[in-house]
Amino acid sequence: MTSTFLKNFSAIILLLIFNLNSSYSFSHDDHSTRLIHNWEFVKGDLGGVWEAVRIENSSNLPVWSDVNLPHSYNDFDAVDPDVSYYQGQGWYRTFLNFDNPYENGRIVLHFEGAGQVTDLYVFQTHIGRHVGGYDEFWFDITDAVKDFVSCPEFGDMYDGKVPVVVRSDNSRNTELIPSDLSDFNLYGGLYRYVNLVYLPPMSVEMLHVKSATSQPYSQARVELSARLYNPLKNVEPVSIQYSITDPLGEEVAAGELKRQAWTGFRDLIDLTIEQPMLWSTHTPQLYTSSLTLITSESKHTRVERFGIREFEFKKHGPFYLNGERLFIQGTHRHEDHAGVGPAMTEDLMRQEMELMKEMGVNFLRTGHYQQSRIILELCDELGILVWEEIPWCRGGLGGENFREQARRMLTHMIEQHYNHPSVIIWGLGNENDWPGDFDTFDKHEIRSFMQELHDLSHALDDSRKTGIRRADFLNDVIDVYSPSIWAGWYR
Q1: In the predicted model, what is the mean pLDDT of the chain?
Q2: Which of 25, 40, 308, 490 has the fewest CB atoms within 10 Å, measured from its CB?
């Protein structure tokens, strides 16, 4: 198959994708907007951010191309047999108007995932860097926007808009995970959605819902905990209103309490639901929790869906879901598609997951990294169990930067996907018996670090299992092990 045919075929698929209308939105609240249009892109590196925000014409400046998000600069070359796929830098820019409805509110840019190293700028101010291609991250740009808007020249520079610039980099780097020895592409670009979020001065950054039940399933215990986003470190008393509705939309619990503003996760509510409607692969029943934070200045509501279910891996035996034996049948999923690479739209993801369900899938392993929040939402809705893992995949074990990235990505994956009833296994690695990135391959060190990740996973979430795939010398460290013979693939 020639590269020309591949490109033409992919272009047809791409046109079909972009003619679809988005039918579903995953937003933080009513003041969250997907930034899809009005982006420009340059493939390759620039001399600095100034070259991205200069407005005078110059033959020495790069030519920017119009793109929509999500976007990857490996959309075609990753499947072109005649060229190596590009690993390097790409720059994105857009120009935004801001209209925060909250007095003294915050302006946040929320990235649902970008690869592999991301730097954000407002005009020439470097806001921050995120390392890791698959976990979500966000930056508060409030102060940088204020500083730029206060410039006397602001009104004339960009027609009153604020330049926002992103540098993406998927260069080879053995001290980052995943390894380039992995048999999948380490894509570059803003290949998941980017959201503009307006928040009040104090808001609910994260809401976790933990549920537990046991036979005969006549009651379920539900616990709510939350973490605040409070950059000004306000210590005033706050009111908290909560509500839980069942899958039929009926309110089954509600109340109000008062607390002093806090830091970190705080356990807030512990209640019992009578005769719970259980989530399963056949009847994926979803409850909705709502937590409203009320301060002297504003109110902010966080809404999360959750499910009530019980699962068990019998030692040397079958798998049980809600006390019933379930034969697991499923597949693995990589985040890519013809014509767009990893930059799949929400509609395309929904089509893919519905096809899986139609073919009889009740289990999905996300190989080999945290995937889009949309995929997890769809697994919740469709009734597909999930093994989700961090991308410690092949290559060995690096130094402290490598290890800190693994810890951070595991923490983010668990915190960000904590409420999904579909998730039953947190994967800690894949093919960790495959050396090559470093001059030493110390099985004792790898076992020690895998044990650390196992302990961290259970400290963050003791309701799920840990797992790895194909590393026999680690099979006693984690809860669930997959030897994965893969006859016909390796040999």
Answers
A1: 92
A2: 490
